[in-house]
Design goal:
Distance between the termini: 16 Å
CATH class of the largest domain: Mainly Beta
Number of helices: 4
């Protein structure tokens, strides 16, 4: 096989000036700010007036829907050159906000007005729920668990010039005798410890999760990390874009049987077991209503991209441990017609994705006697990518190609903030490009190599990204057929 003289077009996705300036409360990107700092703050949240009963329950007649109150919570803010992350230990060990400074955009969703709902419907542990948003751990029951609104113990376990780590802990000793009947695990005495870490020179939030069985006997439970995602939105006014799209290392999805519209979205693979292609369901616009789906054979990354401005957020984690991936939304139209200030409805425009140690809700996992289960997941931004072929915590990559007349343009887009990198592109195992470059926090770096159809044939188009020491940061490959 012969290839033409190596040619690469190296470009950077340039964001519109409007994405970098003019966003209230967020400064334009500045390399000269202090690399890592932490400070105490407060956050406020408006909700309709209510007081939770001592057992955790709440009835609809205990909510005053004519009165809005402002609730205030202590917060810990950690910043580096890339991120401003806000943590609220007193409300479910919550990572409430991630602002990506190079573009000034929020990556997570926060609810502007809390509306209690689901009263005595049997869906949630305490028979009601209220949504704030962010990223937070839930255990030992499914469906937001027991402790999503509880204060967790916390401490700063490391604070250096290189990293800041905040540990949050809860031991399950609480039982509501009036809980919804389908919640069955009881008092497990499991300790859930979550350690959030931000590094001085990294654009991601690291979340280390540890589950400790304090009993000398097996214990059934469920653990899920809940994420409410609206990347590319405005800080303080997070409205998920209609163009939001789920990206995932995933080919198949299993739909729950209660939502008939889900069966019409994608082609069936195994309809008897409700397994379908993961394709059209990825687009928020296609969600006709509420619906629950679970990933099948989930890879180690998934997330959401705002296709309007190509701002995204990815979760990268060891999904041989957290193999459960739940997809849920309120439905596309429901999310935008529901004004909480006038309708009292709780539907909102965001994508809710969950990572769990079991395949689906109400399917238990088990910790053996005194067993400790732990893993690390990472939440990182992407800029300038419309799709993702593969990702690690250090870089996200999208490979594609465009055929024009007798030429095929092989395209690799790499989003990373790392420096002194080497990219190797190969077609059918033969090198077509080997370049050194620096990542750019404000956009994806694009490599384009033209190859004639006659010389190309068919084969795999692949990428290997390494650092200056030769360590592989990420690989990716796609078949090329023209």
């Amino acid at each position: 096989m012969r290839f033409p003289r190596k040619a690469a077009v190296l470009t950077v996705v340039i964001l519109m000036l409007g994405l970098l300036v003019g966003i209230p409360g967020v400064s334009a990107y500045n390399h000269n700010i202090p690399q890592l700092r932490m400070y105490n703050s407060t956050v406020t949240w408006d909700t309709y007036a209510f007081e939770i009963n001592p057992d955790g329950s709440l009835r609809e007649d205990q909510v005053d829907f004519s009165t809005i109150v402002t609730r205030e919570f202590p917060a810990i803010v950690v910043e580096n050159a890339y991120l401003k992350a806000t943590f609220v230990p007193d409300y479910g060990a919550r990572l409430l906000s991630i602002v990506y400074k190079p573009t000034g955009h929020e990556l997570l969703y926060q609810n502007p007005l809390g509306v209690p709902y689901g009263f005595q419907e049997g869906n949630f542990y305490n028979d009601w729920l209220i949504v704030w948003g962010g990223i937070f751990p839930t255990f030992p029951e499914p469906e937001h668990g027991k402790y999503f609104a509880f204060p967790w113990e916390y401490e700063i376990v490391e604070r250096t010039t290189d990293k800041i780590s905040i540990a949050m802990r809860m031991t399950d000793k609480y039982e509501n005798d009036n809980k919804a009947q389908k919640f069955r695990y009881g008092v497990t005495e499991i300790t859930n410890e979550v350690v959030y870490t931000i590094y001085a020179d990294k654009p991601y939030v690291e979340m280390h999760v540890k589950l400790i069985n304090n009993k000398s006997e097996p214990v059934e439970y469920e653990y899920w990390t809940c994420t409410t995602l609206a990347p590319g939105s405005r800080p303080g006014r997070t409205v998920g874009s209609p163009s939001m799209e789920i990206v995932a290392d995933l080919e198949k999805i299993q739909h729950m049987p209660w939502y008939r519209w889900l069966r019409e979205i994608d082609e069936p693979i195994d309809p008897e077991n409700r397994i379908y292609e993961f394709k059209n369901i990825a687009k928020f616009r296609n969600h006709q209503g509420m619906g629950i789906s679970y990933g099948v054979d989930v890879g180690d990354w998934w997330g959401v991209i705002n296709q309007d401005n190509k701002i995204g957020i990815l979760r990268v984690g060891p999904n041989h441990i957290t193999h459960g991936l739940k997809l849920w939304t309120w439905g596309f139209e429901n999310s935008y017609i529901s004004d909480p200030y006038t309708t009292r409805r709780s539907a909102r425009p965001y994508l809710e994705l969950w990572a769990g140690t079991s395949h689906e809700f109400f399917e238990s996992d088990t910790l053996g006697p005194n067993e400790v289960k732990e893993w690390t997941e990472f939440y990182l931004p992407t800029v300038g990518l419309e799709a993702v072929t593969n990702s690690s915590k250090d870089a996200a990559v999208y490979l594609t190609y465009e055929a024009e007349a007798d030429l095929v343009n092989l395209i690799a887009k790499v989003f990373t903030t790392e420096k002194e990198l080497n990219v190797l592109l190969e077609l059918a195992g033969e090198e077509i490009l080997h370049e050194s470059f620096n990542g750019d926090p404000q956009g994806a770096v694009t490599f384009a190599v033209p190859v004639t159809k006659d010389e190309m044939g068919e084969g795999m188009f692949s990428l290997t990204l390494t650092d200056h020491a030769g360590n592989v940061l990420v690989t990716a490959a796609i078949p090329v057929e023209v």
